[in-house]
């Protein structure tokens, strides 16, 4: 039995890794995402049970206590956190993953010091990497959480010579790492490395604007995976190495997808200090281009929607803030009863995290076949009677196609301006995260419906019912 145990554990790890990969594949579609989550969760449970059978695990009482505490906190978070707050939750979980990996490195370093074992070069390098990636992930994720929660300004926070200073601090980390490698077991040097890694995480995220949060969330998710993989090398656990590598690789792929959706390089996202907190203008007033907008009331808008053959709904962050997803679903149901074909156009970076709109609409039980990504829906706008934009801004701005001087020029957008009519629901004439005026608002066939998305959509539902 004792000879079989290590082999059984490794086989369990192999099965768990296969379930992780299969689960990730299922996450590629909204229709199978929940099933993918369940499959990956089963794999993680198998990996945890197999790890607990390791003879090196000595204190099962403390592990059981940690499992109970973690499970209780997880259940409370799952029940209490609103779907609109999911980006903040994901950012916080990324940070906790980084913290766990950093603590593994710290714990291993402390164990080597307390037992008097020789600190090998391999152990020193893996501990340094675990502390660096884990520390950056922890504080970077906390800053991202604070920006998303409104505890810090969403606009980029910069200061003179910011990037050179960041580079010097990073170089300092590697120099201090060299001292630790030369004098392994030096506690004060190790604590200095830990402090630098935490500082780097803060400096890494503060210059990034709120509009780039989908990229930041994806990248920090990748970092949390790399930190876990580094922790796996520290404790020589193959399952942790594999799981971390999968998360790291998938996070990098998703980051590249997000950058492509904005037509910007990762470097420009991280170091460009792009975006603003949005300048507010009076509803119905002319924009910076001295053009005027056409406004419409709920009754007229409901008539346009109810008598259309087809309607494309374009959700954005404003819908998420107003928690209007259930009202939007009710509006779509009412239009469907009138024989109107309803589709949803999803931009890859709409919202504050990858897939944010999909998650919100799934919560409202919107049928998956009605969700269309940008490449699929754009060719259909020419034949669309009414495009209903709810709280979206930069992702529908035609300036991305026509204005070479615009900061968002070249960014792929949802081509709402090609629809026969467009109705835009917004609180006012504020700009998006890019800080530029939206040409769509001033088009002849665009009508603005001002107000909170949840209240306005509820009015549309009431008016459509009377048709």
From TrEMBL:
<dbReference type="InterPro" id="IPR012136">
    <property type="entry name" value="NADH_DH_b"/>
</dbReference>
<keyword id="KW-0812">Transmembrane</keyword>
<feature type="transmembrane region" description="Helical">
    <location>
        <begin position="165"/>
        <end position="183"/>
    </location>
</feature>
<keyword id="KW-1003">Cell membrane</keyword>
<feature type="transmembrane region" description="Helical">
    <location>
        <begin position="6"/>
        <end position="24"/>
    </location>
</feature>
<feature type="transmembrane region" description="Helical">
    <location>
        <begin position="240"/>
        <end position="259"/>
    </location>
</feature>
<keyword id="KW-0472">Membrane</keyword>
<comment type="function">
    <text>The transhydrogenation between NADH and NADP is coupled to respiration and ATP hydrolysis and functions as a proton pump across the membrane.</text>
</comment>
<dbReference type="GO" id="GO:0050661">
    <property type="term" value="F:NADP binding"/>
</dbReference>
<dbReference type="InterPro" id="IPR034300">
    <property type="entry name" value="PNTB-like"/>
</dbReference>
<keyword id="KW-0520">NAD</keyword>
<dbReference type="Pfam" id="PF02233">
    <property type="entry name" value="PNTB"/>
</dbReference>
<keyword id="KW-1133">Transmembrane helix</keyword>
<feature type="transmembrane region" description="Helical">
    <location>
        <begin position="119"/>
        <end position="145"/>
    </location>
</feature>
<comment type="similarity">
    <text>Belongs to the PNT beta subunit family.</text>
</comment>
<feature type="transmembrane region" description="Helical">
    <location>
        <begin position="36"/>
        <end position="53"/>
    </location>
</feature>
<feature type="transmembrane region" description="Helical">
    <location>
        <begin position="59"/>
        <end position="79"/>
    </location>
</feature>
<feature type="transmembrane region" description="Helical">
    <location>
        <begin position="189"/>
        <end position="208"/>
    </location>
</feature>
<dbReference type="InterPro" id="IPR029035">
    <property type="entry name" value="DHS-like_NAD/FAD-binding_dom"/>
</dbReference>
<dbReference type="GO" id="GO:0005886">
    <property type="term" value="C:plasma membrane"/>
</dbReference>
<keyword id="KW-1278">Translocase</keyword>
<keyword id="KW-0997">Cell inner membrane</keyword>
<feature type="transmembrane region" description="Helical">
    <location>
        <begin position="266"/>
        <end position="285"/>
    </location>
</feature>
<dbReference type="GO" id="GO:0008750">
    <property type="term" value="F:proton-translocating NAD(P)+ transhydrogenase activity"/>
</dbReference>
<feature type="domain" description="NADP transhydrogenase beta-like">
    <location>
        <begin position="10"/>
        <end position="462"/>
    </location>
</feature>
<keyword id="KW-0521">NADP</keyword>
<protein>
    <recommendedName>
        <fullName>NAD(P) transhydrogenase subunit beta</fullName>
        <ecNumber>7.1.1.1</ecNumber>
    </recommendedName>
</protein>
